[in-house]
Backbone:
């Protein structure tokens, strides 16, 4: 209470003295401020902006000066927030060090990828897409979806050789782009694997129920009734709920034992695919591709819509990258396992879809039991048993792959402080995150209990496609980012290094991100810029241009697909957007790349990653608008978690005080990243300490 009666000047001196004391306490522990350390935290700047006395330490009541300082504090607040959102993960010297057990061979990881991808896609989606979306052209839908996945898989393979850590695209984005986008990707990956596990559990339950003659579904509807809600299934699926929990329990036994289980069922599934393809082509009737509306009865839009849905069948390959922290030699195993698994799965999908549509006209395909009914129509009723065994084996490995990847994604984010710390605990005996596995299995089981498979599949695809898009963009950005930047050099000394000498040292170490000698004339047009900045900007512009192009083609209607051609203004707009996309690729290509220390490199950068971005964006645009709404709700929940918890608890937070930056005058303060030494900090006058 006594402080309230002090004079205004005495109160100001009290606040200033307290602030300077905090600065002096931190001099002994932190004297250099760089971009790698942290500017004022959000909490500190918020306190300062709410303290009018600190805004005017001289005691002058000039409102213009107070307003100017408030504006500077607000700018610092915005700068701090942006810094925290864009800070990148720093990896330790030993990338192979991990609390998890490194025991998976290349074969184990390859079988994990094949098992995760080959499941409900063949036995469930094939009939649905062929009957409702693409007809016999489902083969092309799988080809388009497979090409988009292969392009993304190349990018995953390069990152897997760079960063052998759990977390897949999340870790890659954190290391290369920044924390906020890493959280967005990680949050989407969690959605992908949770929805993937739930949808496969429902498909597994549906197959068992079909073999039992619908007894389970009828009994459930009789006891609990139907749920009259468009977003949910008609009846709760307790068998799917139990299956999720059972496989979750299996995952807790240890990664090596689980991999044996997965490999056995994957081999059974591959054998059934060979059986279906061989007998299917034997009973093929090629008139089914020429009659009944031809090969593509739903047109090109139907092929693209089918490809967007078929993309779900390929999403399992990122579980290969998720296992990076449990692989013996991740820089070799991840690229090899990615290519082998993608090749096997792509061939299998195309053969099975072609065999199905050649055996039966697409109009007569039963979406719920496409393959058994197709064989039954040719009198091979016993094939139903073989196909059912393969279906259950395939869906078992897919469910296991999702429940293997989901907790490891959560574990990686919790390790970095972006999710709750309890999820980062690893059991010492089994060397797996038991708590995380249990919670993830429970949430997947709840989703499987109430939601329908069709709605789950589309919802999962959008998050996966966005993750693939950002990974492809990150490959380009990292290829054109210098290995050493000016901010890496300045912290080496406590005294400021002259800009010229630092620049010469950096130039000597690396040329990545700089223009090739014969293209120096471009700098005269665009002006000077830091190495790697222009390629990163061009990647962003290219992504936006592709989004606009495909959005116009998808929703342009008669203005685009008019019999006499598109409207003139629309043709000009599309030409302009295509030109911008090509120019950005050219501007990226005229810079030097960095490929130091890579055992695997994506070929033809930036062309292949750019094609991956374009393919993923095209598939996203073709998804249902309701899927975008649900996706927006999911991302809103994620943003609340990040800004309320993750940003403050991130391990990349630097434990330094920032009041020195707040009290520096404009003439001496620069952008965050400038080097401040002890002599730059204000000293405490003896007259103030006496008062």
Residues:
């Amino acid at each position: 209470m006594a402080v309230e009666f002090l004079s205004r000047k005495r109160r100001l001196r009290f606040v200033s003295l307290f602030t300077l004391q905090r600065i002096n306490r931190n001099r002994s522990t932190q004297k250099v401020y760089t971009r790698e350390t942290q500017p004022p935290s959000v909490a500190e700047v918020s306190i300062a902006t709410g303290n009018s006395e600190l805004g005017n330490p001289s005691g002058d009541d000039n409102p213009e000066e107070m307003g100017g300082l408030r504006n500077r504090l607000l700018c610092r607040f915005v700068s701090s927030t942006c810094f925290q959102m864009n800070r990148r993960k720093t990896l330790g010297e030993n990338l192979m060090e991990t609390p998890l057990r490194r025991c998976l061979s290349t074969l184990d990881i390859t079988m994990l990828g094949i098992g995760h991808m080959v499941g409900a896609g063949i036995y469930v989606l094939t009939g649905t897409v062929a009957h409702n979306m693409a007809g016999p052209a489902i083969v092309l839908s799988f080809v388009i979806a497979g090409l988009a996945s292969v392009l993304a898989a190349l990018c995953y393979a390069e990152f897997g050789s760079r960063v052998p850590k759990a977390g897949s695209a999340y870790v890659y984005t954190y290391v290369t782009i920044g924390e906020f986008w890493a959280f967005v990707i990680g949050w989407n990956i969690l959605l992908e694997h949770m929805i993937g596990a739930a949808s496969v559990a429902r498909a597994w339950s549906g197959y068992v129920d079909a073999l039992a003659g619908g007894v389970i579904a009828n009994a459930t509807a009789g006891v609990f009734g139907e749920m009259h809600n468009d977003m949910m299934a008609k009846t709760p699926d307790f068998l799917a709920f139990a299956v999720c929990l059972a496989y979750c329990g299996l995952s807790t036994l240890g990664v090596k034992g689980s991999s044996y289980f997965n490999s056995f069922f994957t081999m059974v599934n591959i054998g059934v695919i060979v059986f279906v393809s061989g007998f299917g082509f034997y009973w093929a009737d090629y008139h089914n591709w020429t009659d009944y509306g031809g090969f593509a009865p739903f047109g090109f839009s139907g092929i693209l819509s089918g490809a967007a849905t078929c993309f779900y069948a390929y999403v399992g390959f990122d579980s290969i990258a998720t296992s990076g922290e449990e692989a013996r030699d991740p820089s070799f195993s991840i690229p090899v396992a990615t290519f082998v698994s993608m090749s096997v799965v792509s061939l299998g999908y195309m053969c099975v879809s072609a065999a199905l549509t050649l055996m039966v006209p697409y109009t007569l395909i039963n979406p719920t039991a496409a393959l058994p009914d197709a064989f039954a129509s040719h009198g091979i009723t016993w094939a139903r048993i073989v196909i059912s065994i393969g279906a259950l084996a395939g869906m078992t490995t897919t469910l296991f792959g999702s429940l293997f990847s989901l907790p490891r994604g959560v574990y990686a984010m919790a390790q970095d402080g972006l999710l709750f710390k309890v999820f980062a605990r690893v059991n010492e005996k089994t060397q797996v995150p038991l708590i995380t596995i249990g919670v993830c299995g429970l949430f997947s089981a709840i989703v499987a209990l109430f939601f329908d498979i069709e709605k789950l599949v589309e919802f999962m695809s959008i998050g996966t496609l966005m993750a693939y898009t950002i990974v492809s963009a990150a490959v380009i950005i990292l290829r054109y980012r210098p290995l050493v930047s000016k901010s890496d050099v300045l912290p080496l000394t406590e005294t400021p290094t002259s800009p010229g000498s630092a620049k010469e040292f950096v130039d000597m170490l690396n040329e990545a991100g700089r223009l090739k000698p014969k293209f120096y004339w471009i700098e005269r047009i665009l002006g000077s810029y830091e190495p790697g900045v222009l390629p990163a900007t061009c990647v962003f512009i290219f992504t936006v241009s592709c989004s606009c192009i495909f959005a116009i083609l998808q929703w342009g209607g008669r203005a685009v697909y008019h019999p006499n051609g598109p409207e003139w203004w629309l043709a000009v707009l599309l030409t302009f957007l295509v030109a911008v996309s090509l120019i950005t690729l050219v501007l990226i290509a005229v810079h030097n790349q960095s490929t130091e220390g890579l055992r695997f490199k994506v070929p033809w950068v930036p062309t292949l990653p750019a094609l991956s971005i374009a393919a993923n964006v095209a598939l996203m645009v073709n998804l249902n608008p309701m899927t975008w709404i649900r996706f927006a709700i999911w991302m809103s929940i994620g943003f609340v978690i990040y800004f309320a918890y993750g940003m403050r608890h991130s391990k990349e937070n630097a434990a330094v005080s920032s009041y020195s930056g707040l009290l520096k005058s404009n003439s001496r303060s620069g952008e965050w990243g400038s080097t401040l030494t002890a002599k730059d900090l204000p000293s405490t006058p003896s007259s103030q300490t006496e008062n």
Observations:
- The first helix runs from residue 8 to 27.
- The chain has a mean pLDDT of 75.
- The two ends are 19 Å apart (CA to CA).
- The chain is about 65% helix and 0% strand.
